[in-house]
Amino acid sequence: MANSKFEYVRAFERPDPLLPNTFIVIRLDGRSFHSFSARHAFTKPNDIRALHLMNAAAAAVVRDLPDIAIAYGVSDEFSFVLRRETTLFERREAKLVTTVCSSFTSWYVFLWPQFFPETPLVPPLPSFDGRAVCYPALGNVRDYLSWRQADCHINNLYNTTFWALVQQGGMTTQEAEEELKGTFAKDKNEILFSRFKINYNNEPEFFKKGSVIFRDYTDVLPSAAAPDSSSPAAAAATAEAQETATTAVPREKSKTQIEKEKKRAKKAQVVVEHVDIIQDAFWEKRPWILG
Ligand code: ATP
Ligand code: ATP
Ligand code: MG
Ligand code: MG
Ligand code: MG
Ligand code: MG
């Protein structure tokens, strides 16, 4: 089979490795979910079954790929952040994006009957597009996730008000759209409160914050995280840490360090929370996630 006269075509393939030592973010988004959600009778504005299904599919992907440090999802989209030092698929862009995308889609379809037992999945079947973006600094990843969560809040406030006008206010969708044109957040809060007695602050965190999926290490013994300080490995690690602190560019992690973190990641429990990731509190409590 090797060295056939056809093999030269392989040289037309382009290498596509993503920049080393950067956080890789892969974002998926459902194709035409506006009509997909209508076809499968999603509750508006937030179908809780569909959101749980998205989270279950994403959690399965996080479990399958220990190099995913954190994932954030809202509506029909999910972002997966890979550890900065990942060498998964030699960081080849197409391999990473298509693998995450197709395994997410497979889980979504596989798990569908659990979340929609009374709604058969019918064509056009769900599909997701995907893209990868590299972020060089921790601050960039934090800003990326903040951008998605801020978007979640803006869209949810709009959708909550829009559907209150339609479902409780008896407006057509066009009338509701017209009503909300040019309004600010405070106007929408006011419409919700004065016309529908809805205090937006009391809406579920699930809808306001979206979903954050990560590995929780609280149940892992501290000794698994920090080596015994009397061991030679610990002494080496300390020396390395001190050296890192004095250099402007952080040194890459050692192979043993990366292996240790991988083992730990495989053992840890994958959890889903609906919490603020814009402020520092979440990150200060869990420095390991993007560390
Ligand atoms: P595109 O293919 O360009 O992404 P789209 O129709 O998927 O088009 P999006 O901007 O991705 O457009 O918006 C997704 C739409 O899916 C939302 O506007 C909403 O109507 C619907 N949707 C997604 N998840 C839910 C949910 N859990 N409950 C209700 N509706 C949802
Ligand atoms: P990678 O993730 O790198 O693609 P791989 O294990 O999928 O690794 P491939 O080079 O893609 O490796 O080869 C696919 C393998 O799948 C084949 O070597 C063969 O063992 C198996 N396979 C695929 N289709 C069939 C089939 N119809 N019947 C039997 N075996 C199959
Ligand atoms: Mg889109
Ligand atoms: Mg979409
Ligand atoms: Mg979307
Ligand atoms: Mg293969």
UniProtKB/TrEMBL annotation:
Enzyme class per UniProt: transferase
PANTHER family xrefs: TRNA(HIS) GUANYLYLTRANSFERASE-RELATED
Gene Ontology molecular function: GTP binding; magnesium ion binding; tRNA guanylyltransferase activity
Region named Disordered: 242-263
E.C. number: 2.7.7.79
Record GO biological process: tRNA modification
UniProt binding sites for Mg(2+) 2: D29, D76
Protein name: tRNA(His) guanylyltransferase
Residues covered by the Thg1 C-terminal domain: 140-279
Cofactor: Mg(2+)
Family per similarity comment: Belongs to the tRNA(His) guanylyltransferase family.
